[in-house]
Amino acid sequence: MSKLFEPFSVRDLTIANRVWVSPMCQYSSVDGLPNDWHLMHLGQFAAGGAGLVMTEASAVVPEGRISPQDAGIWNDEQARAWRRVTEFVHAQDSVAGMQLAHAGRKGSTYRPWDGKRTSVPPEEGGWQAVGPDDRAFGGYDAPRPLTEEEAGRLPGQFAAAARRAVDAGFDLVELHFAHGYLVHEFYSPLSNDRTDRYGGDFEGRTRLAVEITGAVRAELGDGVPLFARLSSSDWDDDGWTIEDTVRLAGLLKEHGVDLIDASSGGNTPHPQIPLGPGYQVPFAERVRAEAGIPTGAVGMITEPGQAEKIISSGSADAVFLARALLREPHWPLRAASELGAEIRWVDQYARARA
Ligand SMILES: Cc1cc2nc3c(=O)[nH]c(=O)nc-3n(C[C@H](O)[C@H](O)[C@H](O)COP(=O)(O)O)c2cc1C
């Protein structure tokens, strides 16, 4: 019997299977609004059988976008526009999650296909990016360090965004604490030389992550699941490690996180990463075993048998797929067929069932 296609229950929510859409920026919004593209993009995965459809990194404040074309959830108009997406996802018996994000010093950048690895100037819709300190990432402009008071406002800004996400119909929220964006910048020693309460030792550097988690959990109440995506390693001798991640995962669990989405990297431009199939799965496995919290595995998971083994061996509770789903949005339907598992086909496509 397939474990990959068994339901996963967390708080008040049951997710039909463990094949989940990994968050993927589309750089296709105007004023942070989702539009027809987002409905098509996310909707195809719901029709394709994914148990959980997660949005792209959605900015909690305008300056928290990566590119000027990023989606957002910093106002009520955006929340209303997202409702179209959540209603469609629910109509396919899938579950919708929103990834909440602040890009920090990696904000105000061009879309990947613009091919420019510099900051976007104000006349092209860019802004002054902010960070823990004034060290720049790669060829981007130096960030303006946040004041202690500004950093202290972030938990409230994430909580307000979480409220809007729930009002928009999302069933769960994921905090984007990975990939060299703001919260990762705070917890990584490579990008935080602050001397106030948000810097210094492990406790100081992780304080922002913990405070955001507490504020969001308080806003969500007890029923709504909360995930956090962490960069499990900076892949750098002087950087954040998997041991740090296990410790932070334990803290986040105490403050209301239900599942760690174990990614890595993003805080240095050219890390040496031993890329290969499932290369980040060992992170999910260690966090699950040592912090005692459910995990999602992500990264170069492409084959049904591979995904099945990750779940059945107890390395993780779910898999997040990104590029495999872009290549094949109905991957879960094929995977279920190959694994001999039950999955719901949408009525419109049922005649194609193998
Ligand atoms: C087009 C694209 C956009 C992405 N945007 C995000 C994002 O918004 N948030 C995030 O946490 N990861 C983002 N990622 C990373 C993916 O979620 C995933 O972690 C990564 O691609 C590795 O998984 P894969 O091998 O299945 O593609 C993005 C990846 C791609 C390909």
TrEMBL record:
- Chain segments carrying region Disordered: 106-125
Q: Which InterPro entries match?
A: Aldolase_TIM, OxRdtase_FMN_N, YqjM-like
Which cofactor(s) does the record list? FMN
Q: Which Gene3D superfamilies match?
A: Aldolase class I
Q: Does the keyword Flavoprotein apply?
A: yes
Q: Where do the NADH:flavin oxidoreductase/NADH oxidase N-terminal domain residues begin and end? A: 3-339
Q: Which UniProt keyword terms apply here?
A: Flavoprotein, FMN, NADP, Oxidoreductase
Extract the CDD domains matched here: OYE_YqiM_FMN (cd02932)
Instruction: Output this protein's name.
Output: NADH:flavin oxidoreductase/NADH oxidase
Species per Swiss-Prot/TrEMBL record: Amycolatopsis minnesotensis
